[in-house]
Request: fold
Amino acid sequence: MSENFKIEIVNPEKSFLSKEEVSEVVVPAFEGEIGILKDHIPIISFLKPGIIKVSIGSEVENYYVEDGIVEFKDNSLSILTSSIFNLKDADKNHISNSISEAENELSKDEIDDQKRFILNHKVEVLKSISAI
Amino acid sequence: MASLDDLKKRISSVKSTQKITKAMKMVAAAKLRRAQESAERGRPYSQKMNNIILNLSSGISDKENAPKLLAGTGEDKVHLCVVMTADRGLCGGFNSNIIKKAKSYFQKLSDSGKELKIITVGSKGYDQLKRAYKDNIIENISFKESKNANYFDADKVGKILIQKFEQKEFDVCTIFYNQFKNVITQIPQEQQIIPLKINEEEKSSDENYEFEPDEDEILGNLLPKNISTQIFKAMLENSASEQGSRMSAMDNATRNAGEMVDKLTIQYNRSRQAAITKELIEIISGAESL
Reply:
């Protein structure tokens, strides 16, 4: 029995990534990271800013996402997101721009707690990426 | 009868028009291919989104407290219509077909005594609607600067809609756009996006999902995104339709110009011939009289 399942990541413009044989995926769900293996029970959740780790055999690919929805069903994982990029292609300038944008947003008074939480988290993740 | 010189001028002017329409057709064909591709690439996203929402909404136990974007405000008084057209003309019946569809819907609304509000996306729609519905148009959005339909723009429209909905400015929202079937056929569509209409028959699985966090919260997070997605889908379909429609319109125009050039050329040759014959007769009759 193979221990692999299917993953598909789509963004509004195109199908971003589609792999048949992944062994494990870790997604930054809203209430904490979830690791998904084969035969996970069906789940729907949404994402906070963070890193999706896709393991194919011994290789691991990392993607940064800002938001999105995950759905796992019948051993196929769908991730819908509007903003995603591979960490390998990360653009330092772009990241530092996003950080300052998020910090700007944070300094405003009118944002609610949930948004503040997400923004704080985003800054943290982006900073850790740019530190690499 | 027009003089030879006049005919010559007509012919050359029609020919240069033909050149322009031909070039526009080529450009539209190239753009069409790209627009069609991106429309196709965009489909999986909106389909998946739809599926998830279907699964979610069937899982919701408490219909009363369902998010307003799904269940509606409980009233049916103020209708908001988002009319999506192109920013440029010269594309056959593309814009007027949407407007026609929208106008007949507006008529139905005013017949049943509903209040009407209009948002136009794309300047052509605004131009055509502002005469008859000036007071109803509350906003006009145009994306002349962006070259292709992109999600960022769609999201902007979506956010405006949601903001207005939260401020209780309308109860029902419908979007109008052209669905791309093929190059010759585009079907004007009306689609209600708020409250979301769910096709009961499509409910496929009774899969028991685990939700994290709970359904309501996910739905609350997902539904606004779905609005933007639907608008984005409409924008993609629209841009493919626009190019397709322009291509066939320009193809027709090129052909008509060709026919016209032929006709004018025949007329030109005839009148030249007539002039020559007339001159000959004059010479011969002059020689005879000697």
